[in-house]
Every structure is written in structure tokens, then in C-alpha cells.
Amino acid sequence: MCTSCDETYRIFSVELITKEPVNTNMELFKEIAHRLFQNKVISNINIDNNKAYNVNGKQMFGFDLHLGNTNNPLTVNLENVEKALNGLLAQFVDYSEMQIKLN
């Protein structure tokens, strides 16, 4: 958890299996933000710590989501984030097996 400007952010790490090495994907980030706002999970989002790496022969793409909600901070939890992002990868053919962890 991080506190900044009188707002508390919860930090989630996201890992995806990719077909090719990826350092960033603005379309993916836009869709993540859209779904989290649409489901009223967050009011603010920051994405950082983008990285591409290899684990057990699988190409991975990872990043951190810093999520906050000034109106209702309790909505920013792992269950709500997973629910909002459920099915996200169906529209991104180069990605599979998304894992989300609360830091």
C-alpha cells in the first residue's frame, strides 16, 4: 500500500504469458483502466514497473497497477479487480494466463 496526496493506493502485480517479448501495450492498459472505472473499482490508476522476462521457457510481461478510490477505498481489493478484468484477454490474442497478486 502507498499513500500519496491524501489518497491510499493499493498495488497489484500483474503477469501475463505473451507470444513475443513486450515492454508496454497502451491498448491493454487503456482496456484495464476502462474496465476498472466502469466497474467502479477505482477513481485513480497508475501503471509502472513494466518488464518483459522469461520463466521456465515462457515469455512473460509484468507490470504493477497502483489503484485508488477516493470515494470508496474498500472497493479496491483483489476480488473486485479480478472480477472487473475477467475475460480481458479474449480481445488480446498475443496474451494468455493473466495472474494478479496484491502486493
Task: Tell the overall outline.
Answer: globular
| Number of helices, where a helix is a run of at least 4 consecutive DSSP H or I residues | 2
Question: SS-based structural class?
Answer: alpha+beta
- The total count of strands amounts to 5
- Give the SSE order as H and E letters: EEHEEHE
The major sheet is characterized as: 5 strands, antiparallel
**Which bin fits the share of residues in helices?**
10-25%
Kindly estimate the percentage of residues that lie in beta strands according to DSSP: 35-45%
Rounded to an integer in angstroms, the radius of gyration calculated over CA atoms is 14 Å
The CA-CA distance between the termini, in Å, is 7 Å
Mean pLDDT value: 92
Residue ranges: pLDDT <50 for 5 or more in a row? none
